[in-house]
Amino acid sequence: MYDLKAHANSFGPVAAQYQAARPSYPDELFDALERLSGRPLDGADVLDVGAGTGIATRLLAGRGARVVAVEPSEGMAAVLREVSPRIPVVKAVGDELPFHDASVDFVTYAQAFHWTDPQRSIPEALRVLRPGGALAVWWNVKDYRVPWLAAQQERMAAALPETYHYNSGVNARPEALTAAGLEVRAAQLRWERRIPVDQVIDDLTSRSYVAVLTPERRAPILAAERAALLAAFPDGQVVEPYLLDVFVVPKP
């Protein structure tokens, strides 16, 4: 049985792998955020909720935003503080933001909105946003139309029938935005990265459907996946294609 809370709490112990292996985001994402929201990131006050190890947080700050990272996991927050000591971190969740009404220009969720209860997190985001602000949520989604990724998905589903849930919650959450009667502006970007097989394995290790496993259960599954990838990519280098879905909700 799928245990949402266990999956949500699984990231702390694998924070190092998360930071080392998870994909970043192309510059075009932040151009899209500004275009869809109608306002610049430079000089904006931003809450990056579910910030994790700060992969998106640092990029937002690099665009000139004043960013506060909001992260419930001590393990993830510890890595964020180590890598980016100047970025303030607040321990909280999107369902209950400890910030004043109308105090920020953006509330962002990078790869994190699906861990919230939209009936709580959407009103909370709108509450803390200033007039003219925007809620922005986005996900890097691997393009499973590509044969090697489709094969990997089949292997993971077969090996982990009780925990594998890739994208199960991601696709439903944008519907929660439209169901709330809000204007939703959307864009999809295509990009790719070239990484070694070992980084693919670290990325898998940081996924909740693997992170929830005991080390004894996890090890043979990852070893088998590494062997399958090396058979498909003898040079040890893998090209991962992504579809980056971004949704922006201006505050009414």
Topology:
Blueprint: H1 4-8, H2 15-21, H3 27-37, E1 45-49, H4 55-62, E2 66-70, H5 74-83, E3 89-90, E4 104-110, H6 118-128, E5 129-142, H7 147-159, H8 173-179, E6 185-196, H9 197-205, H10 208-211, H11 215-232, E7 237-250
Parallel strand pairs: 1-2, 1-4, 2-3, 4-5
Antiparallel strand pairs: 5-7, 6-7
Helix pairs in contact: 2-9, 7-11, 9-11
Can you give a write-up of this model?
- This protein has 252 residues and is of the alpha/beta class.
- The protein has one domain (4-143, 167-193, 241-250): Rossmann fold, CATH 3.40.50.150.
- It has helices at residues 4-8, 15-21, 27-37, 55-62, 74-83, 118-128, 147-159, 173-179, 197-205, 208-211, 215-232, and strands at residues 45-49, 66-70, 89-90, 104-110, 129-142, 185-196, 237-250.
- The chain has a seven-stranded mixed beta sheet with strand order 3-2-1-4-5-7-6.
- Strand 2, helix 5 (74-83) and strand 3 form a beta-alpha-beta unit.
- Helix 2 packs across helix 9 (197-205), helix 7 (147-159) packs antiparallel against helix 11 (215-232) and helix 9 (197-205) runs antiparallel to helix 11 (215-232).
- The model has no long low-confidence stretch (mean pLDDT 91).
